[in-house]
């Protein structure tokens, strides 16, 4: 990767860092392509179990690079209507097979908020700020914000943020349920690594199957979603992972949480 982003591997975890601090990690076309490639490589790498997405220089992401859009129009910030291809900000149309944690400091606004909503879990420190700031400049949410935000925090709160463009701090985002973990006693990256290590220690097929059942069945009628859950769950059982877990539990290794 070039300087727009970089990644580091810690054991079986990859940390993907947006690295455009002078523009609060705003994403131009090149950066979006880098992010897409990084997450495709993560998903394909059998040795990696969890990804962490974060930003350099004290901010997560301020969304699309409006300066690049103003200078180049849509030439470098192309709008692709094919939902199966990459999104304007890169990976926001992907459904990965493995979990991603957003480690958020500073601004996670506009498209940066959309990118955070794309992640499975969001952790934030007390400097974090959230909002649909693009409301002020006529820039629409086209990386899943109008769909994921209501699913995460409810229609009423999502409409408030989307219509007003107001800023909320880390504590309010935590109260909304937008932030899963509010980190007050350690570095956000270290806190994300600790959680990632815990997730990576679980039997992976079972965790990934349950996670995918949530995504696949979320908008289905309950009866159809239950069928998906049962089919995926029985695949895990037949694979032998459940039996191995039961043996560990029987040996009094499974009661340590």
Kindly estimate the percentage of residues that lie in beta strands according to DSSP: 15-25%
Roughly how many Å apart are the termini?
38 Å
Number of helical stretches of at least 4 residues? 10
Shape, per Cα inertia axes:
globular
Average pLDDT for all residues:
91
The value of Rg in angstroms is 19 Å
Share of helix among residues? 40-55%
- Which spans have pLDDT < 50 for at least 5 consecutive residues? none
User: In this structure, how is the largest beta sheet organized?
Assistant: 6 strands, mixed
Give the SSE string. Answer: EEHEHEEHEEHHEHEHHHH
Tally the beta strands.
9
Structural class: alpha/beta
Numbering strands along the chain, what is their spatial order in the largest sheet?
1-2-3-4-6-9
Explain what the structure shows:
The structure is a single chain. This protein has 257 residues and is of the alpha/beta class. The chain is 44% helix and 15% strand. The strands form two sheets. The chain has a six-stranded mixed beta sheet with strand order 1-2-3-4-6-9, with helices on both faces. A three-stranded mixed beta sheet has the order 5-7-8. Helix 4 crosses helix 5 and helix 8 packs antiparallel against helix 9 (222-239). The longest helix has 18 residues, at 222-239. The two termini are 38 Å apart. The mean pLDDT is 91.
């Amino acid at each position: 990767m070039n300087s727009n982003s970089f990644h580091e591997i810690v054991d079986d975890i990859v940390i993907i860092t947006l690295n455009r601090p002078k523009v609060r990690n705003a994403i131009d076309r090149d950066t979006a392509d880098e992010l897409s490639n990084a997450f495709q490589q993560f998903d394909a790498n059998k040795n990696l179990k969890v990804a962490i997405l974060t930003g350099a220089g004290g901010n997560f992401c301020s969304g699309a690079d409006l300066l690049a859009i103003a200078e180049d129009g849509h030439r470098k910030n192309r709008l692709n209507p094919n939902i199966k291809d990459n999104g304007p900000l890169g990976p926001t149309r992907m459904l990965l097979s493995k979990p991603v944690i957003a480690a958020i400091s500073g601004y996670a606004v506009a498209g940066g908020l959309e990118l955070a909503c794309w992640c499975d879990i969001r952790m934030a420190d007390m400097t974090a700020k959230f909002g649909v700031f693009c409301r002020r400049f006529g820039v629409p949410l086209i990386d899943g914000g109008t769909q994921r935000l209501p699913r995460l925090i409810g229609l009423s709160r999502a409409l408030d943020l989307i219509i007003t463009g107001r800023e909320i701090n880390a504590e309010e985002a935590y109260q909304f349920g937008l932030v899963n973990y509010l980190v007050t006693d350690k570095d956000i990256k270290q806190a994300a690594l600790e959680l990632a290590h815990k997730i990576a220690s679980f039997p992976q097929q079972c965790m990934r199957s349950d996670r995918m059942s949530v995504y696949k069945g979320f908008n289905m009628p309950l009866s159809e979603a239950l069928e998906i859950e049962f089919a995926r769950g029985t695949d895990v059982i037949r694979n032998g992972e459940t039996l191995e877990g039961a043996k560990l539990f029987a040996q009094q290794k499974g009661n340590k949480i």
